Amino acid sequence: MKISGDDREYETLVVALNDHETLEAYKKPLDTYHVSLLPRLLGKLLVVCGNLVYGRVPSYLKFRAVEVIARVPYHSWESASFTLLTMFYTDADRALRFSKTSEFARFARDNETMHVVVISELARREEKAGVIRHTIIPLLFAFFYFWMSYFLYLINSKWSFELNYMFEQHAFDQYSLFLKLRGEVLKRRKVESEYLNWYGRNPIDQYDFFMSVRNDEIIHRNTSIHQFQK
Length: 230
Description:
With 230 residues, this protein is mainly α. It has helices at 8-16, 20-31, 37-54, 60-70, 72-87, 92-126, 131-155, 157-186, 194-199, 206-229. The longest helix has 35 residues, at 92-126.
């Protein structure tokens, strides 16, 4: 499936993944993917540090931090692809590969931006946030993650994609747990967001919204691996 900002096929897949059997069939082939040592260690470090700061139990504010960080690799891939394209523009095959990565990165970046804007709105209504823990620390994480993803992409793009695979898997697991723990409550809460309306999604309640975000994350996870397997 081609992921493009104008491609409604993506949104069709997001909705289809609400079905448990469809979701399992989509994710199973890459559930056992073996991540290389370096990105596996870095990914575990990010997850462990995040759990130490925000706890293991998912919450609105934890998701806000997760989404601030989750946007970052897509920016770094686009920047790294631009750098490499400047160096290898005479190699048509490489140029096409870098351009395809940039296309995916732009779409996923905008998708993750929607997540963080809407979840920030929800978090402001549901939970009280401290400046250091919920603003400064996520920005520091994001700064570290950007340059880590950027240089990994320059050295070996596979490692950078694998690191994102791990982070997106963590995000998917957290959203799945959140839906399980708070599903009935979420079904009674509405989502009112001009940004979400502008983006083009119209969930009937918070449960529907968070399920769509969960589905986004597993699509991003799988697509990260598909980027270098082509």
